[in-house]
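HOLO CASE FILE
Compound: iron/sulfur cluster
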Amino acid sequence: MVVQELKDFIIRYGKEQGADLIGFAPVGRWEQYNEVPPDFRPQALWPPAKTVIVLGIAMPLPIVETTPSVLHTELYKTVNAELDRMAVNLMRNLNRLGFASFFFTRDGYGSLRALREKNFAAFSHVMAAKYAGLGTIGVSHCLLTKEFGPRVRLVSVFTQADIPPDAMLERELCIKCGDCAACCPNACIAMRPDQVIGDYNKTACLEKAEELTARRCYPCGVCIKVCPVGLDRRLYKQKGMRKKYLKEKEALLRDGNHPEYRPWQHVRAYGVVKEAVKKNM
Ligand code: SF4
Ligand code: SF4
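Model generated. Tokens follow.
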């Protein structure tokens, strides 16, 4: 099988398996851009790697908007399981075709306790997706894609096959609106005048994750919910939501049953104990 045929096969296979996004990054891009510490690069993790294939599944906006909720938690778990299933099966298929492959699960954080000790994953799918041309990194440190903004989860398969790469995006997708920073419940994100990517307080974000995990309605994802980038907003007719997002916290503090937010509050009220519902605002 020639490499272009292999690429077409992987794209077809990925789509059939349910991937919403698929991109191909040559491992040389980690060296070329020199943004990722050497031990976290594909060649260091698995030296035969020539290409990293990144698969993405979208997180539907109307469910992300209910965060923090058990519905959002269940979606998150389902999407993660789907990503791992797709990636392990792609790896096995590539191995059967004679192209040795290796995969990284979509998270790899292990547990929040492990994250407390070492606030990193062994491999960044966000950087892999950027090098595979799927998007750019925004103020919030999330990958922003044209199709779904940051509402996409990712997994990566390394392969020995030298597959024709996808071009990286030339234009930043982040418009530096600052909504992710303004809406973050723990003030973890700060805009920077000198660059797109903001300052990010990982510990404060982890504390939010710990609080939500204790209440069984994780992850937070407010920065993902409010980002205006993404064609998914057109699909769901959810453009022009800025004011609603920015006013949510204040409106719900005044009236927990505020009519504008009632459907989200309804979803949030089930599957969590009462005390947790109050904190959901
Ligand atoms: S996940 Fe939540 S706490 Fe963490 S940066 Fe985003 S909005 Fe802030
Ligand atoms: S919310 Fe605005 S500033 Fe934050 S990542 Fe999205 S576009 Fe960029």
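CASE NOTES: Residues 46 and 102 are 8 Å apart (CA to CA). The first helix runs from residue 3 to 17.
CLOSED: yes
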